[in-house]
Amino acid sequence: MAHITATAVTGKNVWDGGTSPMGASYGKLMMWFFLLSDAFTFSGLLITYGLVRSSHQAYEGLVSTFTFSTEYWPVPEKVFEAVPFLHGYELPLVFVGIMTFILIMSSVTMVLAVEAGHRMDRRAVEKWMLWTIIGGATFLACQAWEWTHFIVGTDSPTIVKDFVNGQWITKEVYGANLKINQYGPQPFADFFFFITGFHGFHVFSGVMLNFLIYYNTVTGVYERRGHYEMVEKVGLYWHFVDLVWVFVFTFFYLV
Amino acid sequence: MAHHAHEPQVTVLPPDKAKIKKLWTIALYLLIITGIEFLIAFLVPHEYKQLRVWVFVALTIVKAAYIVGEFMHLRYEVKVLFWSILIPIIFIVWMLVAFVYEGIKMPVFQ
Fold first, then answer.
1. Which among A4, A18, A105, B28 counts the fewest CB atoms within 10 Å?
2. CA-to-CA distance for A25 and B70, rounded, in angstroms?
3. Contact in structure between A32 and B77 (CB atoms under 8 Å)
4. DSSP-derived secondary structure for A210-249
């Protein structure tokens, strides 16, 4: 039975082999360095958003009188103010707040599953993994709603100037996709789809991995193996997804 | 190899009450900080744009530190691992500074 508990050894011969200088198993280290590279990928997306946004005209007037226009970058809280079942109410950022709450809670249940794994408590691991999966799936459902609302648009259209067949025309635009955008300049919609989409895909992969871990726990794979280190590794990934959301929340929705 | 015939004897340790309490406390901190961000978003007028942005960035870094340090356990790892993860982040900071600076200097495009 290959048992891969890594122990930290201090001393001058730590890098000579036979010990784990970083006090972590190969798999866990590789997860850490994968996450570091993934952090660079997300930074690339968010920083490009910052670059493009700061090169566009900012909205100068009062926030209370803000209207959508392709002339300036929108105020995010004016774009994201819809909540399911509450059509017609202006509730800025409330739904994003609920999504943040869900993701933070699922991060806590994940870390509790890791804690239970350290104690070889199979039942507790099962319980907390299931909560984590539910949290992740709920988040994905919220995001599906948010995307639908963003794509379909508001009740009243935005008048957008467009260059068609060699002449400028004006048209009414509802919602947004990669070609049209009622909320502001086109890159705003493009970045919304790319950044939240890339994060959402990470959440989706995370839910798949969490389910795999849950399945293996239920079938007793880790109990026979003698340790629950896989829960820890997938846990690192799941916390990273939460971490990225914290940054997306600030730089896309708040600032 | 795997013992399918007879399940191994597993000793289940009792829950570490102190540790679990600490984890819930950190979750509470994260939620409180998010709540503060909400309050700032609606109570501090948009005229104070610079102030708002810097406070948001600072609070985000505090939240990130809690998630990476406590939930991902990085604070308690060996120093070599800790710094191997943190030092490369310098490049992200530089990328942020350089790109946003470029963006401000770029001609406005419509």
1. A18
2. 19
3. no
4. HHHHHHHHHTTHHHHHT--HHHHHHHHHHHHHHHHHHHHI
Q: Give the CATH superfamily of A26-254.
A: Cytochrome c oxidase, subunit III, four-helix bundle (1.20.120.80)
Nearest to A71 among B103, B107, B110 (CB): B110
Min distance A249 CA to chain B CA atoms (Å): 9
Q: State the Cα–Cα distance between residues B94 and B92, nearest whole angstrom.
A: 5
Fill in the amino acid letter for A192: F
CA atoms of A61 and A70, how far apart (whole Å): 15
Cβ-contact A219, A87 below 8 angstroms:
no
Residue labelled with tokens 């597993």: B10
Nearest-by-Cβ selection for B56 from A1, A242, A255: A255
Output DSSP code: residue B103: H
B34 touches chain A (CB under 8 A): yes
Q: Is the pLDDT of residue B60 over 80?
A: yes
> What are the mean pLDDT values of chain A's consecutive 10-residue runs (255 residues total)?
53 76 90 96 94 87 85 89 84 90 95 95 96 97 95 87 84 88 92 96 97 96 94 96 95 90
Tell whether B52 lies on the interface with A, counting CB pairs under 8 A.
Answer: yes
Q: How far apart are CA B27 and CA A101, in angstroms?
A: 10
Structure tokens at A168: 């400028």
Question: Beta-strand (E) ranges in chain A?
Answer: 158-164, 167-173
Q: CA quadruple B27, B28, B29, B35: dihedral positive or negative?
A: positive
Q: Calculate how close chain A gets to B63, using CA atoms only, in Å.
A: 8
Domain residue ranges of chain B, discontinuous segments joined by +:
17-105
Task: Select from B55, B96, B52 the least CA-distant residue to A39.
Answer: B96
Residue carrying structure tokens 């070609």: A179
Domain locations along chain A:
26-254
Pick the closest to residue A83 from A71, A72, A94, A68 (CA basis): A94
What confidence tens digit (pLDDT) does each residue in B12-39 have?
Answer: 898 889 999 999 999 999 999 999 999 9
ipTM rounded to 2 decimals: 0.87
